[in-house]
Predict the structure of SGNH/GDSL hydrolase family protein.
Amino acid sequence: MLIVLDVAYTQVYLQSSNRGKIEYVYNSKALNYDVVILGSSRANNHFVAPLFEEKGLKTFNYGMSGAHLFEASLLLKLMVERQYKIKNVIVEADLNLANEQESESVASKFLPYIHHSKLIEDHYAQQPNFWVNYYIPFYRYIGFEPQIGFREMYNTATGQPTKLLGNLGYYPLGKNPNANMKNDLRNLKPLHNKYYEEIKQICAANNIKLIAIMTPMCSNVKGLDYFQKVSKVYPEIHNYENAVEGDQYFSSCGHMNDTGARKFTSIILHDFFNK
């Protein structure tokens, strides 16, 4: 029964491409982009992809809320495997440099394909839960029920859309009057991050220009020297932590609202794509 359920659920995900960014990439092939954006919510909420398009740059924001560089690297690997033609990759590399772990809520979205993709299998091979997710039928669908279990499978099978692919992948935030406008980064330490290194290697091997960026935070942050520490580890990462100032531009301390994101995106377009 577990084997039958495993096959049935997997077949549903193998046929879908309209629910989320991971399945959209997995079930696609040979797309062309001037700009691909990768990272966490600090990419998803900060880079306004339609503004790139207005400049004539075919763009999609593949940032995912909660994602780490573990998932960003794997997503880029899948794009290359599917023969995407990409001129520029913008990767948000700041707070996510402080860990090399998977984000379970996001990483689980790759698991339906683990028996159909050697690339995904290899990427997960060193993870502590790899054995049970790979070898025990249906275990991954039970263990990650909220992400890929019955409800998500049913919504996928019935073609229920989400907002994740709208606005060319950009997810705008509004003003939040109850937002936490404080943050403490003093315990964070940027690593010589394995998955950021993978992204660099993939881009170099495929003639893709890599633009790594630290994105803004609100003014009331303890431990802002974290961004200087990042610059010491990776001098090539562009520090835009203070490019947008003023709490009126933020939905929370680590995430700009739509007004702030548009202001920030205009700066990035001017600095990197003005020609």
Remarks:
- The CA atoms of residues 73 and 199 lie 6 Å apart.
- The chain has one domain: 2-273.
- The beta strands are 32-38, 59-61, 85-92, 183-184, 209-214, 221-222, 238-239, 250-252, 255-256.
- The first helix runs from residue 2 to 14.
